[in-house]
From TrEMBL:
Protein name: TPM domain-containing protein
Domain (TPM) ranges: 112-165
Species of the source: Panicum hallii
InterPro entries on file: TPM_dom (IPR007621)
Gene3D superfamilies found in the cross-reference section: 3.10.310.50
PANTHER family referenced in this protein's UniProt entry, alphabetically: THYLAKOID LUMENAL 15.0 KDA PROTEIN 2, CHLOROPLASTIC (PTHR35514)
A Pfam family: TPM_phosphatase
Length: 243
């Protein structure tokens, strides 16, 4: 008995260019889908160690390659980076609006400016003494500004404090939730892990902390943590803990 097979024709699932049919009637026509080009991706940043990032990348934040072999280039680069990052920092701390009110500055030089009235006179004196001792021992310059936006001297503090590569500007402002903000000089960034500043801000600057203990307690705790960190010997584990 002869067995008769019915021919089967399979329709493609999606319209495409078909290849030439094979000789067998039961063979399935296979199509080759056109590969879509992958979009080009530009990487804006990469996770690197704070030392490698500070030494090898010229980013707008704390950039400035401080090469000892070409000191004049290092000075220009560091000064330019400091000016750019300080402007960006004050802009973000002041609700992205440039504020410049030199009339709110004190008449005499001081390392602690409290235009918000968070600190008592005794607290201000203790902080000034701590900052003075820290600068003598380490060479780092810590400056504290307590404000309530928009009541702030803003950009005027840059010239008042002569902010440079070894300066840490600590702005205490509860307006936007977290009370602690920092501007870090490029040379400080080489010795202190960037994660340290986030830890200080997260521990002592969060809203629950300063609402329970007070703005003054947040400021004093942050200054103490910074002082301990900067006195630590430089190494892989320095400033790894925020006490």
């Amino acid at each position: 008995m002869a067995l008769v097979l019915a021919s089967v024709r399979l329709l493609p699932l999606a319209p495409s260019r078909a290849t030439a049919p094979t000789s067998s009637p039961l063979s399935v026509t296979r199509t080759r889908r056109r590969a879509l080009p992958l979009p080009r991706v530009r990487c804006c940043a990469s996770r690197t160690s704070h030392r490698a990032a500070a030494a090898s990348e010229a980013t707008p934040s704390w950039a400035g390659e401080l090469a000892s072999s070409v000191p004049w280039k290092a000075a220009v680069s560091g000064a330019l980076a400091l000016a750019v990052c300080f402007t960006c920092f004050v802009g973000s701390a002041n609700a992205r609006t440039g504020v410049n009110k030199p009339e709110l500055l004190p008449k005499e030089f001081t390392t602690v400016i409290d235009v918000a009235g968070f600190l008592s006179s005794g607290q201000e004196n203790r902080l000034r003494q701590e900052i003075e001792d820290l600068e003598k021992d380490t060479g780092y310059k810590l400056r504290v500004l307590a404000q309530n936006y928009p009541d702030t001297p803003g950009l005027a503090i840059k010239d008042f404090w002569q902010v440079d590569e070894r300066t840490i500007v600590f702005v205490a402002d509860p307006t936007f939730g977290n009370i602690i903000n920092f501007n870090i000089g490029p040379l400080v960034d080489l010795d202190v892990p960037r994660s340290f500043w986030s830890q200080v801000s997260g521990k002592y600057g969060n809203m629950f902390y300063w609402k329970e203990k007070g703005e003054d307690a947040s400021i004093e705790a942050a200054v103490t943590a910074i002082s301990r960190c900067l006195r630590d010997p430089t190494g892989t584990n320095n400033c790894s803990e925020v006490l």
